[in-house]
Amino acid sequence: MTAPQRLTERKREAILQAAIAEFRSSGFEITSMDKIAATAGVSKRTVYNHFPSKEELFAEILNRLWNSITAEQDMPYSPQKPLRDQLQTLLQAKLHMLADENFLDLARIAIAATIHSPERAQDMVARMGQREEGLTAWIRMAQADGRLKPVEPAFAAQQMHGLLKTFAFWPQVSMGQPSLTLDEQTQVIESALDMFLSRYQA
Question: Which numeric CATH code is attached to 63-200?
Answer without folding.
Answer: 1.10.357.10
